Amino acid sequence: MANFHGLTFCVHTFGCQMNKHDSERIAGMLEGLGALAVDTVEAADIVVFMTCCVREAADVRLYGQVASLKNVPLRAESPLAKRVVAVGGCIGQRDGEKLTDELSHLDVVFGTHNLGSLPALLEAAIEEGGHHVEVLDSSAGFPTELPTSREFTWTAWLPITIGCNNFCTYCIVPYVRGREKSRPLEDIEREARGYVEAGVKEITLLGQNVNSYGRDLYGAPRFVDVLDAVDATGIERLRFATSHPKDLTDAVIERFATLRSLQPALHLPVQSGSNRILDAMNRRYTREHYLGLVDKLRRACPDIALSTDIIVGFPGETEKDFEDTYRIVEEVGYNQVFTFIYSKREGTPAAKMVDDTPREVIQDRFDRLVDLVQKKAYEFNQVDVGRTVPVLVEGASKRDASILAGKSPKNQTVHAAVPQGLSAEDLAGSLVNVRIDEARTWYLSGEVV
Ligand code: 5AD
Ligand code: SF4
C-alpha cells in the first residue's frame, strides 16, 4: 500500500459532474494514504488533471496547462525531487501513451476505468521515475468502493450508472466511458442511507442516462425503483442528471408530483428543435415527443424548472433547422440552457458529415439563441417574486461575505443578507426560508424570514 505522508496534492477538474465526482474519489484515496489536499499547483507535489474531451476547447487547454506546469517550481519543503504530474479521465482514456510522447514531463496516465490504480501508478512514478501509463478497455466492477472526499458535507453525488450506450453521432462519451453499467440497487440504497446518517441534505443521482438504469442488470429499466428507494432513506432533497428524453417514462414523470424528496427541477437535454437534425444526431425522439414530455411534466408539477443542452451548428444545420431550435426554447421556457457550438470529435459519425456552414453564420445563430435564453430565464424567475422559498445554504456569496448564497428547490441561486449575529459559514448546509424580493436572470435575492 502506497504511503503519501508529507506529500501535498491538487486535483484539477474539467468537464461534467461525473468527472467532478471522480475527482472527489481521487481526493478521498490520496487523503486516505496520508497526502494533504492543497488549492494550487504551486503548493502541490502531485498534480492530477481530470480531463474532458467532449469539446475541442477543453482538449486544447489541457495540453497547454500540462505543458506550462514545467515552468512552475516545486515548493522548497517538498520531499520529492520533482513534481509528479498525472492525467486521467476522458483524455487519458482516449490518448494513453500519446500523452507521454507529447508531454515528456508527464509521469502518469490513467483512464476512466481504473481510478483505483492511481495510487500505485503515482508510487511507481515516485520510486522508479519514468512514465507509467495504464488504460483499460473496460472496468471490471463499479468503481464506487473507493472513498470520497466531498467538497461540501451536506450534498453528495451518487453515481448509479457509468458509461453510455446511446451513440449520439456528435458525442465522444461512449468511446471514452464505455458501455453502460448499472450499480446494484442495494449498493445505491446503502450509500444513500450512509449519507443520510452523516447529515447529508441533498443527493444527486448521476449517470450519462439515468433513465435506462437497470437495463443491463435487471433486463428492464428500473430507475423509478431507485428514486423510490432513495426517497425512502429520508433524504431531504433528491435530484438526478442526466435524463435522455427517449427514455423518460410516465412513471418517473409522475414522481415529480408524488415523491416527497424529489425537487421540482429537471435537466432534459433537447440538443436541437429540428426533427431532421435530431435524426442526424441519432437522438431517437422528435420535437413533438419532447414537447409532449414537457407537457406531462408541467401537468405533474406545474412549477417545474426545466434546463437543457443545445448544440448549435451541427453539420448541415440550416436556418430553418435553427429556427426550430429557437422556437422550442421560446415554447418550453427553460430556466437554464447550456448552449454549445458543435465541435467536431474525431472517431464519431458526425465527424464524417459534410459541415460547410460558415463559422460567422453559426456564431450569429449562437448569439441569437443566447439572447433568447437570457430573456426566458429572466421571465421564468419572475414568478418567484413575493414567494418564500426554502434555500439550502452553500456559504457566503463570492463577492460579499455578508450575503449568503444557496439553492432553491428549483435549483436557482438565491442571495440574502446573513441574519444579525450569524455568519454565512454557520449557516452552510442548513435550510433557511427566504422571501424573494427580486429576480434576475441568473439569481434571486431576498430576505431570510
Ligand atoms: N460538440 C458540441 N457539444 C457537444 N456536446 C456533446 N458532444 C458535443 C460536441 N461534439 C454537448 C451536448 C451534451 C453536453 C454535455 O455537451 O449538448 O449534452
Ligand atoms: Fe453522449 Fe448521447 Fe450518451 Fe449523452 S446520451 S453521453 S450525448 S452519446
What does this structure look like?
The chain is an alpha/beta fold and 449 residues long. The chain has a six-stranded parallel beta sheet, with helices on both faces. A five-stranded mixed barrel has the order 15-16-17-19-18. Strands 7-10-11 form a three-stranded parallel beta sheet, with helices on both faces. Helix 7 (185-197) runs parallel beside helix 9 (223-232). 35% of the residues lie in helices and 21% in strands. The protein starts with 7 loop residues before the first strand and ends with a strand. The longest helix has 24 residues, at 359-382. The chain has helices at 17-32, 56-69, 89-95, 97-102, 118-128, 173-177, 185-197, 215-218, 223-232, 250-258, 275-280, 287-300, 319-332, 359-382, 424-427; strands at 8-13, 36-37, 46-51, 84-88, 108-110, 132-134, 155-159, 161-162, 181-182, 202-206, 237-241, 265-267, 305-312, 336-341, 388-396, 403-407, 413-417, 431-439, 443-448. The relative contact order is 0.08. It contains 15 helices and 19 strands.
Strand content: 15-25%
Radius of gyration: 23 Å
What does the overall shape look like? globular
Instruction: Work out the helicity level.
Output: 25-40%
Main sheet record:
6 strands, parallel
Q: Which ions and ligands are bound to the chains? A: 5'-deoxyadenosine, iron/sulfur cluster
Low-confidence stretches: none
DSSP helix count?
A: 15
- Give me the secondary-structure category: alpha/beta
Mean pLDDT over the full residue set: 95
For the largest sheet, list the strands in their spatial order.
2-1-3-4-5-6
Q: How many angstroms does the end-to-end distance come to? A: 52 Å
Q: What is the tally of beta strands?
A: 19
